[in-house]
Every structure is written in structure tokens, then in C-alpha cells.
Design goal:
Two copies of one chain form a homodimer. By secondary structure, the first copy, chain A, is of the alpha/beta class. Chain A contains twelve helices and eight strands. Chain A has one domain: Aldolase class I (TIM Barrel, Alpha-Beta Barrel). In chain A, helix 6 links the parallel strand 3 and strand 4. In chain A, helix 3 runs parallel beside helix 5 and helix 3 packs across helix 12. Chain A is globular. In chain A, about 65% of the residues are buried.
Chain lengths: ~290, ~290
């Protein structure tokens, strides 16, 4: 079995670090001449998949826009997920799920079980109930060669109060919430032997002031790499394009971890419309690089 | 339009504070003689709804168990939600959704828009990206007479490090993450005029040591009530039964807020099986009281 981290490495080697968002906002559906319904979601998603194949290595459907249309929206998403995986794209379901016990295990099963209708290659998760609360999906991911990205420091300014709060108990005492999550994830990845890129990553927004968030890439294990005998923890990076960071800043922002940083772009690509999509993906992929 | 808080008050007045969980764990489906598939989910959910109607006022489907089966699982959930609302039950979708901007707005639209396929009366949300990140669903809820329950101090021990971390910036500086969320929610509820119970609540687990979590029911606005000119913030309370707290402890644990505390019970009811379900709901409702 090839682990998620290795598949991610292959995708980056082949097509660079760009991750194309599949975000069927209602206003984009309208701009694309599609209905705000399950058929529109399906067509939108399949067009992004088709344009991404061969031009980018990674896509990220935003689950919320499919969930808006209930079961019919999920049926559309299932088609999009299948098409993307069949095209060889690495698919990160941006679901931000979180819960405890058998409930969070069920979320893991939904997205990470081979053969599941919503099977993706990785999903985003929220650890508001503790990194310990997501043990079940972490174990599921390891068992099935899948990946997880745990929210740590997101790119929205209103997250600062909670994500910079200082932990006062347990192994991460003294760290901020964001840094504690990063440290817990990099520790988990010590169990991923021999991988150059580990299978569990963190979400670290490009517009975040990492020092102000108490995140130290060296101390929190982000800068470590296979050359140190530790697999490198991948980063899922929102915050580029419309959200403020420039695509040519990836290396400056993420330093030693930049080669395993997945650069998410949605609106700046999708606004090109169906006819301009392929060209927009190519130009973004070139700008982001590998 | 009757607000969610008023509907909640009516449900509690009529049937007490018990909230029956609709948690189709795979092991329960098997124990009930149902398949681990969408038909099994549907039958399970409809039986819980039928047994709850007239015996309890509130039900809470755990979305994760339906999501396990993808779009077919969501189609089953849609039927369960419709049946529950048609039976006059107050339905809290336990989805723990969270995101930012138009994505979190889409989650709000999915669950809180009248006529939406997944329409519920309220949903649970996670504010890991800041209470400010869930403004869109807060506004949607207010517009449509719906409710939200924001995770604050959950009942799982591994949540302690993050939920007790101390905020160092913004209006909640000096409070723990859990207390800051509670304070932000009770502040939001000041805008819910004349309601005895407000439409936005917090999740505060029954097994949590509130003092250790930095939560002060008076200082954080939980104890205030319409008699003070402030609507009372409702509490969704996991942690009873199998999770450790006794059902006869509700008043002792939640004090002045106990009358608007929704007592979630799942496994201790559902383990009775389909034939024992009605009796288990009645005995739990009697024990929990109003």
C-alpha cells in the first residue's frame, strides 16, 4: 500500500504544489451559467476535475457547498470525487469534521474507507475537542493509506483569540493552541517510518503571523524532514490569492517546509469561468511551482 | 415567526428536558436486527422518532452515522428529519460544523433554511476558527427562527488542553477558550429581545469541572434570565448515562440554568432495542424531568 504522504509527494513532483479548490459558490454557479442545484454542482465539479487533470496534482472540494443541497448535493459530490480519483488527482475533502469517539470514527469511515461512496484521499478535520479526540480517524488513515489535515492556524483573522490561547495543562503546556496542535501532529508523524512526506498534515494559513501565533517551525517539528530521520509534515495552506498572500511568496512564508506545502487556490481560478479554467490552472500552477 | 428559543421552551414545558439521541452506531443497527445501510439508518431513525413523539420533546440525530453511508445516508437522514419535525419534535442536528465565510454560511443554509432538504430546528457548530467565524449561521438562525449550539466545554477528557487554554487577546482576554465562547454566545443573545430562552446555546458537558475550565455561570452570563432583562442561554448537555453523570444530577450541575438545560441521552435509551424503546424514553424523561 502506498501511503498518502508518498502519493502527495508524487503529485507535487509531477505537477507542483497547486491545489485547485472545487468551491461551487452559488454566485459562481450563476456566473458559469449553471443552476444552483445538484446538476449544477455536478457539472461544476466535473469541469474543474477535467481542467485540473494533467495540469495540477491536487484538488480540494469544499463539502459545505455540496451539503447545501442535502443528499442530492452529496450524490453530486460522490460523482466528482470518483471522477477526480479516476483522473489520478489527489483529492482532499475539505470537510473540517470533528467529534469524539464513535462519531468522529464514523466521519473518518465516511471519507477515508476504500470503497466508501464519499471516498477521498484525505480530509480536513477540526480538533476543537482535542487532538486526542481524532485518534480514530488518525488510525483509520494510517490503516488505509489515507491522509488528514488538522486545522491549526487558519487564515481568518477572527480565529486569533482561540488559536493563540495558551495551553496550561498536559504535554503541550505553555504552547498556543495552534502550536500545540502542530506539535501533536508532528509527534504522531514519527510513527510514519521512512516517508519523506508524512500522511498527516496541518492547516497553516499563508496570512498568519506565525510568531504571533506562537508557532516555531523548528521547535514544533515542522522543519524536520526525512534527512533528520523524521518524515516531513505536510502543510495545507489557504490564504493565497483573494485572501491576501501572493503565490510567489510560498517559499518565503513556509521556508524549509515549502516543498511540502499545498497551495490552495479557489476563487482566483474559478472566477475564470469554464472557458478560461484550464488556462487559469496552468498559469497558477506555473506561478506556484514545485 | 416563533423563535427557536420559544419552541424549545414549549418543548421543555410539554415534555421535559430530555433529548433523545438518534445515533445509529453500526453495533446498534446489528443489535436492532437492521442492516448497516441506508434502509437500516432510515428504519432506525424513524423508530426513534415514533417512540419519542409524545414522550419527549427534543431529538438529536448524530449526523456522522448517516454520513458514513454518503448520499444514501443523507437521504435516510432527510426522511428522519422530516418525520421528526412533522411529529412536532424539536430537532437538533448534531453536525458540529465549522468553517469561515461563504463555506460556513453554506453549512448554515444546509441545516437552517426553511424548505432545505436537511432542514432541522437547530444545529451544533464548532467555533475553532473563532466565534466571529460563525456569524453567518448566527444571522441565518435569527432570520429563520432557528437555533445553534456552539461547542464550549465538551464532555471528553482529551478536550481539556484546548478548551482550558487562556485567551490573550481581544474582548475575551484572560478567559479560557471555553469561557470565552460562553461569554461571546451570551453577549450575542442580548440581541434576542423578550425571549425567556434565547435561540443560541452552548454545549457544556455534565462531566466537566466548570471551575477548572474557567467557566463562571454568573460572570459568563449563563445564569442570567429574562427576569434580569436578559434571555437565558440554553445549554446542550452531553455526558449523562454511559458517559458518567447521573440523570438526577441535572439541577445540581447546572444550577440556575438547569431549567433550560437539554439533557442528551443516547446509548442508555437506544440499547433498550426497538421493543423497549418507548418504555426507556418514558423512564428517562421521568428521571430527567422539566
Amino acid at each position: 500500500m502506498i501511503g498518502f504522504g508518498t502519493r502527495l509527494e508524487q503529485a507535487i513532483d509531477g505537477h507542483g504544489r497547486l491545489c485547485v479548490g472545487i468551491d461551487p459558490h452559488p454566485y459562481l454557479l450563476s456566473q458559469w451559467g449553471l443552476g444552483d442545484d445538484s446538476a449544477g454542482l455536478r457539472d461544476f465539479g466535473l469541469r474543474v476535475v477535467e481542467a485540473s487533470a494533467g495540469r495540477a496534482g491536487i484538488v480540494k472540494p469544499q463539502v459545505a457547498f455540496f451539503e447545501r443541497h442535502g443528499s442530492a448535493g452529496f450524490a453530486a459530490l460522490e460523482e466528482v470525487l470518483r471522477a477526480a480519483r479516476a483522473a489520478g488527482l489527489v483529492v482532499i475533502a475539505d470537510a473540517k469534521r470533528g467529534d469524539v469517539g464513535s462519531s468522529v470514527e464514523a466521519y473518518g469511515q465516511a471519507w477515508l474507507t476504500p470503497g466508501s461512496p464519499l471516498e477521498a484521499d484525505a480530509m480536513t478535520v477540526s480538533a476543537f475537542q482535542g487532538v486526542g479526540s481524532i485518534t480514530a480517524p488518525l488510525e483509520l488513515a494510517a490503516r488505509h493509506g489515507k491522509g488528514l489535515f488538522v486545522l491549526a492556524a487558519t487564515s481568518n483573522p477572527e480565529a486569533a483569540a482561540i488559536q493563540t490561547a495558551v495551553i496550561g495543562s498536559g504535554a503541550c503546556s505553555g504552547l498556543t493552541v495552534a502550536a500545540g496542535i502542530v506539535a501533536d501532529v508532528t509527534d504522531w508523524n514519527l510513527g510514519d517510518p521512512a516517508a519523506r512526506i508524512a500522511s498527516v498534515g496541518v492547516v497553516l494559513g499563508a496570512t498568519v503571523d506565525f510568531a504571533a501565533y506562537g508557532i516555531d517551525f523548528a521547535a514544533n517539528g515542522i522543519d524536520t524532514a526525512a534527512s533528520d530521520g523524521r518524515p516531513g509534515t505536510p502543510i495545507l495552506a489557504p490564504g493565497f490569492g483573494h485572501q491576501g498572500a501572493r503565490f510567489d511568496q510560498v517559499d518565503a512564508i513556509y521556508g524549509a517546509a515549502a516543498s511540502r506545502t499545498i497551495v490552495a487556490a479557489s476563487r482566483s481560478i474559478l472566477a475564470a469561468g469554464p472557458s478560461g479554467l484550464a488556462a487559469a490552472i496552468t498559469s497558477h500552477a506555473n506561478e506556484v511551482g514545485a
